[in-house]
Amino acid sequence: MGEDSVGVGIIGAGAIGRVHAENLAKRTIGARVAAVMDVDTERAEAVAAASGAGRVYADAMALIGDPEIDAVLIASPDATHAEFTLACIGAGKPVLCEKPLATTAADAERVLRAEVAAGRRLLQVGFMREYDPAHKDVLAVLDSGAIGKALRFRGAHINPRYGDDLTVEDAIVNSIIHDIHSARFMMGAEISGAHVSWVAANPRDPQSCRLADVHLKFENGAIGALEYNGDSGYGYEVLVEITGETGVACTLPNSSPSVRNAAGASQAITPSWPQRFQRAYVDEVQDWIRSIMANEATGPSAWDGYMSLVVADACVRSTETGLPVEIPRIERPALYA
Ligand code: ISE
To answer: Per-domain residue ranges for the chain?
Structure first.
């Protein structure tokens, strides 16, 4: 670690890698972007130049092994996450891995087991909604006791157009995984069953996905419903609602001002996730850097990364059978107590 800043190596210079690089370079106390890796070196060089990084890599393993790199942020394609995270744990370096932690629960479990064997938490998973003020406000209402015990979770995840080639499996593993994690962390309970129904984006390809509904059961008897839209035609929204024994708490549709003019009354809607979760992304990396400096792990853990994929796998099986899928109870390792 430098005198007073953590040197971060970023793997992946695509859309989310750029968001993290800019936030670390311009909006985070105690961090500097030390290196950027991408298989497309031009892309890596552009992000390195914009964030003041002195080193550019085309090989992720070389970046992870670089002694000048104190911590690693993984923002490469989903299928590479588990392998790169395992290498960081092997090298004893703190790592923030974008969601999903892997593309299957089996691969996420390998990461979890490696961290348990290492005996200390090195991994934070990029479920940044935990840092979103609107989600935190709803959770604070629940924690205050104002609506009693939580009985039902509802989530709506509304995306701009992804195109006809989004498969229902991709929608679950890359996108609905956020809602699965939100349901777990906001309800404070593990999910014990899932049933998926969906509408194809392309009528000639039944595995394509335009809309999906996921019905959930929680181990404590609560229920949940996740609504996913892969092509809203108007922009991006994420909404959550918790029904308790004595009341309901929900996020407001959006935080932009209400405008009244000759055209009528209106409110702007964010075009996509970087705008909607701008603040959450900044707070997420700031908390990660703070935790590295304080040497105390924080945020969504390998357990969260793994359990969300256990549920995602069950959802994929439900799309294959058309039936609800039960999820057996899994013992949580003491490291994540
Ligand atoms: C994307 O990968 C994200 O992580 C966004 O937060 C999510 O809303 C979007 O649906 C995903 O594709």
So the answer is: 6-129+279-301, 131-276+308-336
Which pLDDT score is estimated for 2?
A: 60
For ligand 1, the distance from its centroid to the CA atom of residue 251, given in whole angstroms, is 19
Fold of 131-276+308-336: Dihydrodipicolinate Reductase; domain 2 (3.30.360)
pLDDT of residue 3: 58
Task: Give the Å distances, CA to CA, from 237 to 10, 190, 214, 270.
Answer: 28, 25, 17, 7
Per-10-residue mean pLDDT, the chain, length 337:
86 98 98 98 98 98 98 98 98 98 98 98 98 97 98 97 88 98 98 98 95 98 98 96 98 88 95 96 98 96 98 98 97 97
User: Which residue has the least CA distance to atom 12 on ligand 1?
Assistant: 175
Q: Is the CB of 181 under 6 A from ligand 1?
A: no
Query: What pLDDT is recorded for position 116?
Result: 98
Q: Give me the pLDDT at residue 162, please.
A: 75
Q: Regarding the domain delimited by 6-129+279-301, which CATH topology (the fold level of the hierarchy) does it fall under?
A: Rossmann fold (3.40.50)
CA of residue 174 to ligand 1 center, whole Å: 7
Q: Distance from the CA of 334 to the center of ligand 1, in angstroms?
A: 31
Residue 160: CB atoms within 10 A of its CB come to 17
Q: Say yes or no: CB of residue 159 within 6 Å of ligand 1.
A: yes
Ligand 1 pocket test: which of 130, 273, 276 has the largest number of ligand atoms within 8 Å of its C-beta?
Answer: 273
* pLDDT at site 59: 98
What sign results for the dihedral spanned by CA atoms 74, 68, 66, 110?
A: negative
Q: Find how far residue 100's CA is from the centre of its chain.
A: 7
- Give the pairing of strands 211-218 and 123-125: unpaired
